[in-house]
Specification:
The protein has 13 helices and 10 strands. By secondary structure, it is of the alpha+beta class. The strands form 2 sheets. An 8-stranded antiparallel β-sheet has the order 1-2-3-4-5-6-7-10, sandwiched between helices. A two-stranded antiparallel sheet has the order 8-9. Its EC number is 1.3.3.3.
């Protein structure tokens, strides 16, 4: 199968959540490792139109499996999932990319500084390096995930109204990252939004994983250079009627001995409610579908199914949540078109989720409701520690940043022996949906 993406941009649903970030108080470049930021309000932006594409299909996973594991170990990207047996493809399509003229270099430098001043921290890569390669996909992706981090953090801090995000910047010779965490707020028990930008040589374990899946990469002097970057977030509200949400978008490059460069994107966004609210489920999935539909009508159905299949807790016979979208190894038709698709998906995070949290954060609930939330949180932990290969690989990789890897876990959870909800209860209702995924948009 094939998946075709065309040109896209910010959809109209994004107007209400993007705006001027000049008021963001961000640390100065190369600041100390931790600080606290308070984030102000939002405004609007300009929408653009999308495109279409054809059907898509799965095949054997290629490079993403092993490198995602290496990324998780090195950079603490807990959601850099591995081991998928599918890859996303797109039918080749011409690209209108062009390099900026020399006369615009100073203007572009001013624009880069303006963009970076709105982030939660200075970019991991030096500004001079980013300015030297404005058309390189590594630059575009790093700036996009930094901007997404700031947008999401500000939106969540606005909803919470009390707690601030701590900003923990970490660096090492292979790159670094920015971990932003809001904990014990009025609305959110724990909300983390992480950035990682790393490079180096693939570990032997990662290379072996690739070989085990039929991909033999040619090493140069026994090494496989790679670059990887991504944004990963998990948000756990306090109120049982406000759902947990996870999203992750990432980009990888690996260079073979003959100089051949392999690249791909991956990611997704999914919702995990404690109690089923059909209106919320429709809103979440419809927003993601609108984002995907800017690139073609066949993308959402495929990636929705992929999400349902991946977030499956086999020993429980149920999904972790009500799904969303998920894809990996997206490497066609061009970097630019794949990047535009990923950017659209990232921009859909806030409008898909924040209205749901606002709607339910002050709902009344009983101790029994809270107990059920804690039990469902236990299922979340089970999936992340038992099935998420990125998390597991990171935990067993020497030198990995454990705090960032385990950021995805809730602050509190519970396990009860042989707990089973009554028939026809609202607890049983959500279990039925988790065992039998539904189509929420048709």
């Amino acid at each position: 199968m094939a998946l075709r993406l065309g040109q896209l941009g910010s959809g109209p649903w994004w107007r209400a959540v993007r705006g001027d970030y000049a008021q963001l108080r961000a640390p100065s470049p190369r600041s100390a490792s931790a600080c606290v930021c308070r984030l102000p309000g939002t405004a609007g932006t300009q929408p653009r139109r999308g495109l279409g594409h054809g059907s898509s299909a799965g095949g054997g996973s290629r490079l993403g499996t092993g490198l995602a594991a290496a990324l998780a170990g090195m950079a603490g990207l807990a959601a850099a999932v591995l081991g998928h047996v599918q890859r996303a493809e797109m039918v080749p399509k011409s690209s209108g990319a062009r390099s900026p003229s020399p006369g615009r270099l100073e203007e572009d430098g001013d624009e880069l500084a303006r963009r970076c001043s709105t982030f939660m921290s200075s970019p991991v890569t030096e500004l001079r390096e980013l300015g030297r390669r404005p058309d390189d996909m590594k630059t575009k992706m790093e700036l996009m995930i930094m901007e997404t981090q700031a947008q999401v953090c500000r939106a969540l801090a606005q909803v919470d109204g009390v707690a601030d995000f701590s900003v923990d910047r970490w660096e090492r010779k292979e790159g670094g990252g920015i971990t932003c965490v809001l904990q014990d707020g009025r609305v959110f028990e724990k909300a983390g939004v992480n950035i990682s930008v790393v490079h180096g040589n693939l570990s032997e374990e990662a290379a072996n994983q690739m070989r085990s899946r039929g991909k033999a990469l040619k090493k140069k002097d026994g090494k496989l250079p790679f670059t990887a970057m991504g944004i990963s977030s998990v948000i756990h509200p306090k109120n049982p009627y406000a759902p947990t949400m996870h999203f992750n978008y990432r980009y990888f490059e690996v260079e073979e001995a003959d100089g051949k460069m392999h690249w791909w994107f991956g990611g997704g966004c999914d919702l995990t409610p404690t109690y089923l609210n059909r209106e919320d489920a429709v809103h979440f999935h419809r927003t993601l579908k609108e984002a995907c539909d800017q690139h073609g009508p066949d993308i959402y159905p495929k990636f929705k199914k992929w999400c349902d299949d991946y977030f499956f807790i086999a020993h429980r016979g149920e999904r972790r949540g009500i799904g969303g979208i998920f894809f990996d190894d997206l490497d066609s038709p061009s970097k630019e078109e794949a990047f535009r698709f990923v950017k659209t998906c990232a921009e859909a995070v806030v409008p898909s989720y924040v209205p749901i949290v606002k709607k339910h954060c002050d709902d009344s609930y009983t101790p029994q409701d809270k107990l059920w939330q804690q039990l469902r949180r236990g299922r979340y932990v089970e999936f992340n520690l038992v099935y998420d290969r990125g998390t597991k690989f990171g935990l067993f990789t020497p030198g990995s940043r454990i705090e960032s890897i385990l950021m995805s876990l809730p602050l509190t959870a519970r396990w009860e022996y042989m707990h089973s909800p009554p028939e026809n209860s609202k607890e049983a209702e959500i279990l039925e949906v988790l065992r039998h995924p539904k189509d929420w948009v048709h």
